[in-house]
Write a structure and sequence with these properties.
One of its GO terms (molecular function) is hydrolase activity. The protein is an alpha/beta fold. It contains nine helices and 16 strands. It has a single domain, classed as Ribonuclease Z/Hydroxyacylglutathione hydrolase-like (Metallo-beta-lactamase, Chain A, 4-Layer Sandwich). The strands form three sheets. A seven-stranded mixed sheet has the order 8-7-6-5-4-3-16. Strands 9-10-11-12-13-14-15 form a seven-stranded mixed sheet, with helices on one face. Helix 5 links the parallel strand 6 and strand 7. The protein is globular, with a radius of gyration of 23 Å. About 4% of the residues have low confidence.
């Protein structure tokens, strides 16, 4: 009899423990997911929506490219989901990606910095431009995943080479579009707390920043061909061929490329884009450029008009009248079906064939644009 009562107690205790464990797990999931609604961002409303409606890029409630984009119909026998899970591609490095810590650059405003132009690539699209004594940060993402959730979504293949709190004082922060691998809520909030620089963003993206607590005076929204003066620099939003969206709704905010121009030096950044005729127009109006920062990864023949192939990026660089070519948008997040090293392998071959000056830095390596390091194929030893 006593044994039966003991067994009943054990079963009851087991049920309670399992129930408690289940509640704890649910509570943990709720805690991790608590920021997901905020990470989705804001919606256009009020004056912001009215301004968007006046844009030549806006019609029928959404933003549009100048020409239509397309995805290709599925090829016979090709299953993207199956390829994603079981494909033979080497989509991750086989060894740790080598990281460098950039040395301290010249002081802001120092006379010797008048002609300075350096690039520090932190991984993926996150890049620091040091131009004429000023510092401009592009598409900063320091989180472990490019996703609204810390539990799911593409995870980093290497750590950031520096902590976000170790960044030097910034003069401007540029966002190309609102996809999670270019606009990250946690990173924005960290920059809001640790920096005083304004955020320059395409039309509508300010709604996300507004929801995340960025004050209105630090948000500057631009349409294509609009410019803003920051710390002696002229920063211009220029066209790109892509799309936007952080949730179910697509194309509710604009996407752009960027021109950063000082008194003597000029930089172009593609953001995300397919190859299109706009590059020749941008090159004619704003070029030549001392350096171009070109998206080279996350391409696929299934979406040929929204991400450039490496050879197309070289075409775009030449259209832009670019000097030094520095590739971005590769190595950090696994976002497509090609091999991890394929973008820069193809780029290196194409650049040599077409006599294009190229630098392929390690994450954190400072590239002095006038004296760039020779391409040494560093990525091949970890591919």
């Amino acid at each position: 009899m006593a044994r039966a009562r003991s067994t009943d107690v054990e079963r009851s205790l087991g049920r309670r423990m399992r129930g408690a464990a289940g509640l704890a797990a649910l509570a943990g999931l709720a805690w991790v997911a608590r920021d997901v609604p905020a990470a989705l961002g804001g919606r256009l409303s009020g004056a912001r929506a009215e301004r968007a409606a006046r844009s030549p890029q806006f019609r029928d409630g959404t933003f549009h490219n100048r020409v239509g984009t397309r995805t290709e119909p599925a090829e016979p026998g090709r299953n993207l989901v199956r390829e994603l899970i079981f494909g033979k591609q080497k989509r991750r490095p086989t060894a740790p990606v080598p990281l460098l810590r950039p040395s301290t650059s010249g002081q802001v405003g120092a006379p010797e910095a008048a002609d300075e132009l350096n690039i520090v690539w932190y991984g993926h699209a996150s890049t620091l431009i040091e131009i004429e004594g000023r510092r401009v940060l592009l598409d900063p993402v320091w989180s472990d995943r490019c996703s609204p959730s810390g539990l799911v979504g593409p995870r980093r293949l290497h750590e950031p080479p520096v902590g976000i709190d170790e960044l030097p004082p910034l003069d401007a922060i540029l966002i190309s579009h609102d996809h999670y691998d270019h606009l990250d809520m946690a990173t924005v909030r960290a920059l809001l707390a640790g920096q005083s620089a304004p955020f320059l963003v395409p039309l509508g993206v300010g709604a996300h920043l507004d929801r995340w607590g960025v004050p209105a005076e630090r948000i500057i929204e631009l349409d294509w061909s609009e410019s803003h003066q920051v710390a002696g620099l002229t920063i211009t939003a220029t066209a790109a061929q892509h799309f936007s969206g952080r949730g179910l709704r697509r194309d509710g905010t604009l996407w752009s490329s960027w021109v950063v121009a000082g008194a003597r030096r000029k930089v172009f950044y593609t953001g995300d884009s397919g190859y299109f005729g706009g590059y020749a127009e941008i090159g004619a109006e704003h070029g030549p450029f001392d350096v171009t920062l070109m998206q080279v990864g996350a391409y696929d023949r299934a979406w040929p008009t929204i991400h450039m192939f490496p050879e197309e990026a070289v075409n775009a660089h030449l259209d832009l009248r670019g000097g030094l070519f520095v590739p971005v948008h590769w190595a950090t997040f696994n976002l497509a079906l090609h091999d991890w090293s394929e973008p820069v392998d193809r780029l290196w071959a194409e650049a040599k064939a077409r006599d294009v000056r190229l630098a392929v830095p390690r994450p954190g390596e400072r590239v002095v644009v006038d004296e760039p390091p020779a391409v040494d194929g560093w990525w091949q030893s970890v591919a």
